[in-house]
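FORM 7B - TANDEM STRUCTURE REPORT

SECTION 1: FIRST PROTEIN
SEQUENCE AND TOKENS:
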Amino acid sequence: MKAVILAAGEGKRLRPFTETMPKVMLPVANKPILEYVFDAVKNCGIEEIIVVVGYKKEVIMEYFKNYKDIKITYVVQEKQLGTAHALLQAKNNLNDSFIVLSGDNIIDRNSISKLMKGKTEYSILIKEHSHPSKYGVVLVEKNILKELVEKPKEELGRFISTGIYKLPLKVFDEIEELTSQGIYALSSVVQSIIDKDKTINTILADVWMDIVYPWDLISVNEAMIHHIPASTSGVIEKGVTMKDAVSIGEDTTIYSGCYIVGPVVIGSGCEIGPNACIFPSTTIGDNSVIRPFCEIRNSVIMEDVHINSNSYLSHSIVAKGNRIGNNFSSITGKSTIETEDEFKKLENIGTMIGEDCTIGSNVVVEPGIIIGRRCRIDSLKKICKNIPSESKVM
């Protein structure tokens, strides 16, 4: 059986982090989301995957050019019209029943195995969710899918579609019929199949996580980092204290006086300290530098980031290439963030900073603030509202 992975979308709700990379390449515990999907599929015994790419496809193809033990075939969706249209691009590479997955969701091997073993032609993975209205809610009767309602305004149920299916080749007849009518969503195809009295079996996923908004990256990173085993490479000087699971990459130096409490993942070629404190659920990407007396908690620090002395970050995201001055402080607390004409209330959030920013010394950022990519913020500033990409705060 082959797997089709849909990885063509941009992820507009995740800007500024998706301005230079597709959503599927955002790092979780120092690995792109898409790599977790590849690993789960490969570990189920699938030997070939067809990856539907589009937005910033070169980023994906370059990263996975040396990925081993599974054949990867790329097909291009030139216009991101929808998930059914994306799947249609893979038709000529399939010759039997297949599974289809989203490249931007974390899924586990066991859930995929259960899906593959399903005895019906059509099967879907479903998952209980605390906020089902953001997704397609599934109405199920005796494990059979009866209706799929996209983003219902009223509460219909607690279980949602993960967008992961086992499908027969003949599904493309349905896809071609609907896309010819301008209907491009895979959920619409599924509902059309139900309406024609075809049986779609539902299977409960064990692990499934989605990243919809920037702050979701923090919670998903926190969940996945617990699965990373302890591993220490590089140089760890005397006087370093490490507790619980800490993973340290090659050519990284942890200087004397540092205090690190896992789970923590630190990449290759980093410099940490001296006298820096790294607390649980923090990921630090390759070639990053954390200077003395910094404190970082439950944050995602991507690659090539320099954070200078006496800085504090908690529940925050710092994208690659940032240069942050001394005494930087991200205040953590409650925030209400407006997105897509609705307001999201967050209880415990720091700041989110896009790529390649230069931030001066003694800068303070209030909770929930999003700073775009390639911004310049002068010293002694307090940031109280979102900063668009390529802005200067002087």
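SECTION 2: SECOND PROTEIN
SEQUENCE AND TOKENS:
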Amino acid sequence: MINTVKNEAAGDEVTIFYVDDDRDDLEVFASIVEDIDGFAIHTLNNGDKAIEAIENPPPTPNILFLDLNMPGKDGFSVLQEIREDKGLKNLPIVIISTSDDEQIISRCYKMGASYYITKANDYNDLRKSIEHALKIDWASFKATDQDFYYKN
């Protein structure tokens, strides 16, 4: 099941999918996005539901925020499955994880993630990182290993 939050003030909305097994993280993320004009947020609590939702629109995500550590189909598996689908090769995928391990970040980059954010413990820092990712022009942004990782 997809939980949807829409910002009623927005006209042409950008559709965001956020996949995370942590209910609190889903609620905080949705709350942050709800306060930003122009975005509709759809939360999913596991990787299987994410793949099912992406393959069976509507809605169709314009950007996917993806946690790595989930039971069942984890974020690495979701990332790999999406990147193997030629129809989804241009879908921006932002990894949002508690891990700041350089090997994990490098692995995500090599697997084709678009961007990487470490989940901040502070609400304001988390909000800044999400807002930063939402301001990126995904049509033209191609991350290098130098600008792939958002540091709080």
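SECTION 3: OBSERVATIONS ON SECOND PROTEIN
Strands lie at 3-6, 14-19, 39-44, 63-66, 93-97, 115-118, 149-150.
The chain has a mean pLDDT of 92.

SECTION 4: SIGNATURE
Preparer initials: ____
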